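Dear Dr. K.,

Following up on our conversation at the group meeting, I've run the structure prediction for Tetratricopeptide (TPR) repeat from Geodermatophilus pulveris. I'm pasting the input sequence below exactly as I used it, so you can double-check it against your construct before we proceed with anything downstream. Let me know if the numbering doesn't match what you have in your notebook.
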Amino acid sequence: MTLFERTLVDAERLLGPDHPDTLTSRNNLASTYEDAGRPAEAVPLLERILADRERILGPDHPATLTSRNNLASAYRAAGRLAEALPLFECTLADRERILGPEHPDTLGSRGNLASAYRAAGRLTDALPLFERTLADAEQILGPDHPVTLIGRGNLALAYRAAGRPAEAVPLLEQTLADRERILGPDHRDTLIGRNNLALAYRDAGRLAAAVPQFERTLVDAERLLGPDHPDTLIGRDNLAVAYRAAGRLTDAVSLFERILADRERILGPDHPVTLIGRNNLALAYRDAGRLAATVPQFERTLTDAERVLGSDHPNTLTSRSNLAAAYQAVGRLEQALPLLERTLAERERLLGPDHPDTLASRNNLAGVYYDAGRLEQALPLLERTLADTERLLGADHPATLASRNNLASAYQAAGRLAEAVALLERTATDAQRILGTDHPDTLTSRDNLAFAYQATGRLAEARALYERLVADTERVLGPVHPHISGRLLRLGRAKVAIGDLTSAAAAFGRVVEVDTAAYGPNHPEVATDLDALASVQEQQGNAEAAAATRARAQRIRDLHQSSPPAAG
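The predicted structure tokens came back this morning:
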């Protein structure tokens, strides 16, 4: 029995179940459960506290309103958004009526409801509420009040969620400058502000700006809060995600492995944050090409999430989707399909057909249909996803651009090349306008367009686009990012198609160098690259070089065939 549990037992015995101190003890125990990542245990306590305060103090007492707010927050933490939202709405309405629209608690309720709308994917409801909350806080509390600074940060995070990084970045830059000026560079809220700015830089594709911000935030958090503080663990996780996005996969994997070990030691193996850490490590393994380690990690994460959080928790649905993606990556489509079909059905039931996560599930399911050659099922699903994304998020949202790209790829596979090219040309133009020339998603759009040009016989345009794309990718992401090798490979194929075998061989040789640097000299991906190079060498009539290249590829394959299976 913990200290808080014993205190509650003693208070009920000595003071009675309805004494104010007993209610406070019950509330403290619920808060302890929430802090420990056990919201499901906090909920029944908070439900009882709310019922008791409504009975003893009345429904309009400020303490009752606080209890209602606390219960709504616990519902949200437990993944029960359908119950949290009406409670947040009720609390805000009651506080506006009882305390007035400008009371600090009312401002807090408005912010809480906006955050819940954001979590539910209702960004059109969340954004105006965040904007009003910030305007009210600036007017009532002043531009430098801590609540105002939080409101500014929350609005910026909502802009991030809405795919509007151009609006989020300046707001977060202002928030960070204000916090450094008012609170000092070492205040915890300042560290959070720096972390949020780095996240916005990452969303905007400005990885060169994001990584040093994350690195500084982590150094400061370790110095000020200690290596095991929750904020330090979050900072370490964000840096690892940034490394992964920047293609620094070795750095990302080692950091994710440390993060998971720390979370298991500090929070326990079943804490929801630990489960997220296990999921992130699996994603890093996947990106690093360590597929033998990826699938067992995702399988364990899903099993743990179902046991700890329940089968309907949003994080469990995410784990199920990630496992399906891992099965897809290793070609186990017959296992991926039922998982994705189940995830889509559950998200439609729990989150609604218009939630962003539901749209993502629909898109993911279409992707597996596509890989399985079931275009007759993939195409209508992708067309619906694009229509829904445009309707809900707008034509310029990054998710809409991604949906347009996916539909174009399916049109191309179905032989509807004219439709594919038109869609990809629009997407590439829109991405440059909305995200900027150097955003990773813009580079991906240009990659897809070049591939479509090649498929339609527009070889000179494809080669020119690939040459610019490779140069831009190396400049933006660095010389050994995994995206470089894929684009060099496609450039090499474009050069083969026009008969420029010398340049093609140089491109394929560079692919081998990039993947060797990214994955190691004996990775299966390198063997595949060597086969492509050998094929060009054979076309050049250089049989001796081709034989040596193929022999090197075979040695890599032999090495993997003789290795024992990776442990799960």
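Two things stood out to me. Residues 375-393 form the longest helix (19 residues). The chain has 27 helices and no strands.

Best regards,
J.T.
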